[in-house]
Specification:
17 helices; 441 residues
């Protein structure tokens, strides 16, 4: 996105068009190659990431990976569109486009259920259809804003595109550390009781909701401003942006983490208990959710901190620290699951602990590079929001238990969330927390 922004602001308008065409061509054929690897080597990849599966499960997983391999192609082209639109500060269309993917998945599932037959392979096609809808939704916005791209086969791998890919590859690793840790968890979980991977996956999906809504949005929108501040040597504004956005992220995500811990059991029951998914399965999912919840704020913060390093063009630090963190997570997974016998809960907790450690080390490193970042102020604010969130939820639970006795679980959960949100907002307003007003800006 910074490279697109730079080219878009260039006096020579051909620079932006040429860069779009070059990047599209390279990305298209690169994705085609990687998708082919996923298709033709699906069995080998399943062996790498889920070695503990039995032969039948490996065969089904391999078949599903093969069928779903084009998803990578479609979703990555959607990400390219997102970068182009964000470079001209068009944030709403790409932010809304994942909704189309979910709508597509739900549509295929419902049609198959009512008119055909629903099986696990239908779900793989549903995901592909959803990804296609997400990409197609963005295309009109791309061309309406004169951001179209086409194939070029002459000099597409030039000095500028080389520079872009040199910067991108370490960023990929830095931003993907959390996801790689999840893959490590999957490998360990493949040796555990049946359903462990499902429990971890469903819990991680709930964690991804606040991460996707808040962390990604804040991290994406702040990058252009941070880059400009650093280029102008305005380090005071740079550190102020980091401090303000971190506080805003804490204000938004901490209530979710606390709610998952206090209300997670009821939430999992409402969302998942039906059909073959039992109350026991829901309780196991809740245990995994608690393990992930301890690290939610720090995973969200990592997205923001890495953007700070990339805006300053310091790409090596997140990569090196991330590599150390992978080793730490691997060790934590082993000790918590096998030595302390925590099972899949230990895997979720290992991800949280490793995320806390990586966030802390990156935060300290960024403070040493950019003066003005206030660690003590951050800790005080974090504890304050934890207290407000806990008080709001505990109070709302007491009110709901006093007023309602025999209502449905869904009704009680919704009322509890509404009351706790009202209490939290009133307390934030009473304490004059400016982050409350930032929601409406």
């Amino acid at each position: 996105m910074p490279f697109f922004t730079e080219a878009q602001l260039s006096e020579n308008k051909n620079n932006f068009r040429n860069l779009r065409n070059n990047i599209f061509t390279l990305v298209f054929f690169g994705l085609l190659f990687i998708t082919g690897l996923f298709y033709y080597f699906s069995s080998e990849l399943i062996n790498i990431f889920a070695f503990g599966f039995d032969s039948k499960t490996k065969e089904i997983s391999s078949d599903l990976l093969k069928r779903m391999s084009p998803f990578l192609f479609l979703i990555s082209l959607s990400a390219l569109n997102m970068g182009l639109l964000n470079s001209i500060k068009k944030f709403n269309p790409p932010a809304f486009s994942p909704v189309l993917m979910n709508v597509g998945i739900i549509f295929v599932v419902l049609v198959s259920y009512y008119f055909f037959s629903l099986n696990i392979y239908i779900l793989s096609y549903a995901v592909l259809f959803g990804a296609l809808l997400q990409y197609a939704f963005q295309i009109p916005f791309i061309f309406n804003n004169n951001l179209g791209y086409f194939f070029v086969f002459s000099n597409c791998f030039n000095s500028k595109t080389k520079e872009i890919f040199t910067v991108i590859f370490p960023q990929i690793f830095g931003l993907a550390v959390y996801n790689i840790n999840i893959l490590i968890n999957t490998q360990f979980a493949s040796y555990m009781e049946k359903g462990s991977i499902t429990y971890l996956y469903l819990a991680e999906r709930l964690i991804e909701f606040p991460l996707g809504v808040f962390a990604v949005a804040i991290g994406t929108t702040m990058l252009p401003g941070l880059s400009k501040q650093y280029l102008n040597n305005d380090y005071l504004s740079f550190s102020k942006t980091i401090n303000n956005k971190l506080k805003f992220l804490i204000f938004l995500t901490t209530p979710f983490a606390i709610a998952f811990i206090f209300l997670g059991e009821e939430l999992c029951d409402v969302l998942y208990v039906r059909g073959e998914f039992s109350v026991t399965d829901s309780l196991s999912t809740y245990r995994a959710l608690v393990g992930y919840s301890f690290g939610l704020i720090f995973v969200a913060g990592l997205r923001l901190l890495t953007q700070g390093f990339y805006a300053a063009k310091i790409t090596r630090v997140p990569v090196v620290y991330g590599a150390y963190n992978l080793v730490i997570n691997l060790a934590l997974c082993y000790f918590l699951t096998f030595y302390f016998d925590f099972g899949f809960f230990g895997l979720a907790l290992a991800s949280s602990l490793s995320s806390m450690l990586l966030f802390s080390t990156l935060f300290l490193k960024l403070k040493s590079l950019i003066s003005g970042i206030n660690i003590l102020d951050f800790i005080k604010y974090f504890l304050k929001i934890c207290g407000l969130s806990s008080f709001s939820i505990i109070t709302s639970l007491a009110i709901v238990n006093f007023l309602f006795n025999y209502q449905s679980s869904l009704f009680l959960l919704i009322i509890t969330v509404i009351i706790s949100t009202i209490i939290f907002s009133l307390l934030a307003k009473a304490l004059k927390l400016k982050e409350l007003s930032m929601i409406f800006k």
